[in-house]
């Protein structure tokens, strides 16, 4: 009956806005009583439009009646169409390259179509702070841990055949713009033996790497100053750099075409139950099981609790914060509950500079023993460079502002020392991004946390997550769907090493 | 340690000494089952040797790697010349070839011509042992891409002449991989549709390979 009253009010205030009538009527319904939410018309009052309006009123009444009848999709309760579904099998928190890679592989490996319902929750679809798109985009096999080498090799194989994996019917093929330029690591006297050990590990694992003496280095790359270089390690194949945005979008496009649901929102809370158990050490441990995830919509008070069986933490730099919501790390020290997920954001800068006489097409991704790195960008004499700061001088992570003085103090001197042509350069641009830095041993964490038995982690890659994302996605999908690793044995990268305090240190982090 | 996926190619089914065997349709795995037949209809050329680019292990075990490489070249409809000989072995239009090459065991290949064939990255494994290979020509090969060029580093000591013209899938990123071929004296990069600024790329290539003579025709290098 109140609908008739509202119609009467509408006649007096708005003239001729018939098409927006349905919208304005809903607004008045939500507000609970008769609020005139459209601005009052200050034009001339109605004169003889009574019969014209009557026609319009009757048309509106007919439409409302048709809506109210079964078979129409109108409902009085306005539901935000962007909300995630109420139930899902697997919720992946984080829509970066790692999250979408896991989503793709889950769908790729399912045995029956529609077996798993996967939802990917990403809080910022502009990816303004996401580590994936701010990355330098390099891929290398020159690691010291065999797990890392195998992960990168498998990812390079994936990227070589990317169109077999990620092409969608009737869409353009994926072009990663892969530059096959290889990585070049330079070692001084004191670390040359480490490089030699790493070289034999890499060779055993099947990576195509070559060791160069300073003379050979000078012959191959005449623009390098080989002062202080005792040994160099050079990647011959499957190394280089590519476009991270293309890879992210390729994974996303393919996953969505296979039925993964994308949701733009932030995970703010978990509903979980705790089961108190006594460990063998006599410690009381609260084993948690997640029942639902609370997804908060952006710029709104609306949220949707998503009931799920499994949650995947692929939130990158923010995964530590997400784990804290479950109480991981908040227990007393020296207990399992007191060990937090050791992932925190660390800000890293990348500077773009132009040098007219710099090295040409054969420039590899050069990493000096002083910590600086640079690579060619495009064909116009532009390069990008960066370095890792000292532990004590880590920049503030509350924003992504760039410190330009950092380039002058910490990067340029070493650049100019290594490549004399870089004494004359001009910085054209710079940006900053977060590493999902694993403070424990700077290597990825893949697997379940002992305290939460249905949250899988794929985070903490500390700067080499992008290059390992296809293989890690496959590994996590195997963990979830097959119960264990099938193609690559990554048990060394599980939480066990953090619980036992046995770091798997990598000697090649940049 | 479980083996990495990268080595799976080497353990693929070996190809026996048979010609003209169609690949099994199980290879053509498609993520969306209802589109599988669509893909085959749209791309009939995939029915031919691409899926058969396996490791010629059977041949290698019985005849040695050099003859396996020779057999591989001939079965892909390419031609080759042995070291120290002047005659070329090549198949005729129907793909039949003379089996006389089997008489020359343990003779390496010196020149290989695979123009307009379906050679790709996986097939290159059959030529990896040819350390005396001086000339390789893959003109007009539709499956030769940047990863193929990166794999050519295995021939870096011997390769002197390379022809990669008219290959549609090569881009600038792949040409950067040619830096390893320091012995290269003649390079043909004509008419590559995949490179965006050919004039600049040719200059950079000439700087990268100072002792190499680069042929690059078929580009519109005018400044208009």
Automatic annotation (TrEMBL), chain A:
This is FAD-dependent oxidoreductase domain-containing protein 1. Keywords: Electron transport, FAD, Flavoprotein, Membrane, Mitochondrion, Mitochondrion inner membrane, Oxidoreductase, Respiratory chain, Transmembrane, Transmembrane helix, Transport. Its cofactor is FAD. It is found in: Mitochondrion inner membrane. GO terms for molecular function: oxidoreductase activity. InterPro entries: FAD-dep_OxRdtase (IPR006076), FAD/NAD-bd_sf (IPR036188). It holds the Pfam family DAO. It is a single-pass membrane protein. SUPFAM superfamilies: FAD/NAD(P)-binding domain. The lineage of its organism: Eukaryota, Metazoa, Chordata, Craniata, Vertebrata.
TrEMBL record, chain B:
It comes from the Eukaryota. InterPro entries: LRR_dom_sf. Required for the assembly of the mitochondrial NADH:ubiquinone oxidoreductase complex (complex I). Involved in the assembly of the distal region of complex I. Interacts with incompletely assembled mitochondrial NADH:ubiquinone oxidoreductase complex (complex I). Belongs to the ATP synthase subunit s family. This is Distal membrane-arm assembly complex protein 2. It comes from Collichthys lucidus (Big head croaker). The lineage of its organism: Eukaryota, Metazoa, Chordata, Craniata, Vertebrata.
């Amino acid at each position: 009956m109140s609908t008739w009253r509202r119609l009467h009010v509408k006649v007096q205030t708005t003239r001729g806005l018939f098409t927006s009538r349905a919208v304005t009527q809903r607004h008045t319904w939500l507000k609970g009583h008769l609020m005139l939410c459209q601005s009052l018309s200050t034009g001339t009052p109605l004169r003889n439009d009574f019969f014209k309006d009557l026609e319009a009123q009757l048309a509106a009444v007919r439409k409302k009646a048709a809506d109210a009848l079964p078979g129409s999709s109108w409902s009085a309760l306005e539901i935000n169409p962007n909300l995630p579904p109420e139930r899902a099998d697997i919720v992946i928190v984080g829509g970066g390259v790692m999250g979408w890679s896991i989503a793709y592989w889950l769908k790729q490996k399912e045995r029956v179509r529609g077996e798993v319902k996967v939802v990917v929750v990403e809080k910022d679809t502009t990816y303004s702070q996401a580590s994936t798109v701010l990355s330098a985009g390099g891929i290398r096999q020159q690691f010291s841990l065999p797990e890392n080498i195998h992960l990168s090799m498998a990812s390079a194989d994936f990227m070589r055949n990317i169109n077999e994996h990620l092409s969608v019917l009737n869409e353009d093929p994926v072009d990663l713009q892969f530059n096959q330029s290889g990585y070049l690591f330079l070692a001084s006297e004191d670390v040359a033996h480490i490089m030699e050990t790493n070289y034999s590990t890499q060779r055993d694992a099947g990576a195509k790497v070559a060791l160069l003496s300073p003379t050979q280095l000078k012959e191959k790359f005449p623009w390098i100053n080989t002062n202080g270089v005792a040994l160099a390690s050079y990647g011959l194949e499957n190394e280089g750099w590519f476009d991270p945005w293309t890879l992210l979008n390729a994974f996303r496009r393919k996953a969505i075409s296979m039925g993964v649901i994308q949701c733009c929102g932030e995970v703010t809370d978990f509903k979980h139950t705790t089961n108190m158990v006594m460990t063998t050490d006599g410690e009381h441990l609260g084993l948690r099981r997640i029942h639902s995830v609370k997804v908060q919509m952006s710029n709104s008070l609306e949220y949707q609790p998503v009931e799920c069986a499994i949650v995947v933490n692929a939130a990158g730099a923010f995964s530590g914060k997400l784990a804290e919501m479950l109480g991981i790390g908040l227990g007393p020290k020296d207990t399992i509950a007191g060990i937090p997920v050791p992932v925190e954001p660390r800000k890293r800068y990348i500077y773009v500079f132009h040098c007219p006489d710099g090295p040409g097409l054969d420039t590899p991704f050069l990493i000096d023993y002083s910590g600086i790195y640079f690579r060619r960008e495009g064909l116009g004499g532009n390069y990008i460079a960066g370095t890792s700061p000292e532990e004590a001088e880590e920049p503030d992570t509350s924003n992504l502002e760039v410190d330009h003085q950092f380039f002058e103090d910490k990067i340029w001197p070493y650049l100019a020392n290594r490549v004399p042509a870089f004494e004359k350069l001009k910085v054209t641009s710079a940006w900053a991004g977060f590493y999902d830095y694993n403070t424990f041993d700077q290597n990825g964490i893949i697997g379940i946390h002992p305290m939460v038995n249905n949250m899988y982690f794929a985070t903490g890659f500390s700067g080499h997550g992008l290059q390992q994302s296809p293989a890690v996605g496959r590994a996590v999908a195997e963990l979830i769907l097959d119960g264990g690793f099938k193609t690559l044995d990554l048990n060394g990268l599980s939480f066990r090493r953090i619980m036992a305090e046995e770091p798997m240190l990598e000697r090649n982090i940049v | 340690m479980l083996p990495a996926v990268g080595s799976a190619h080497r353990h693929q089914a070996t190809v026996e000494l048979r010609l003209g065997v169609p690949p099994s349709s199980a290879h053509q795995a498609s993520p969306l089952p209802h589109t599988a037949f669509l893909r085959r209809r749209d791309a009939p050329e995939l029915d031919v040797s691409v899926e058969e680019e396996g490791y010629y292990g059977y041949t290698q075990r019985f005849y040695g790697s050099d003859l396996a490489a020779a057999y591989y070249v001939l079965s892909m409809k390419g031609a080759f010349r042995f070291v120290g000989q002047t005659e070329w072995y090549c198949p005729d239009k129907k793909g039949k070839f003379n089996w006389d090459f089997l008489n020359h065991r343990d003779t390496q290949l010196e020149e290989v011509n695979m123009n307009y064939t379906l050679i790709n990255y996986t097939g290159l494994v059959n030529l990896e042992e040819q350390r005396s290979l001086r000339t390789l020509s893959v003109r007009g090969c539709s499956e030769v891409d940047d990863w193929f060029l990166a794999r050519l580093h295995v021939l870096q000591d011997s390769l002197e002449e390379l022809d990669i013209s008219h290959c549609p899938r090569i881009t600038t990123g792949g040409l950067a991989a040619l830096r390893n071929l320091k012995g290269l004296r003649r390079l043909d990069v004509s008419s590559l549709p995949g490179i965006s600024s050919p004039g600049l790329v040719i200059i950079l290539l000439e700087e990268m390979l100072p002792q190499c003579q680069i042929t690059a025709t078929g580009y519109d290098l005018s400044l208009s």
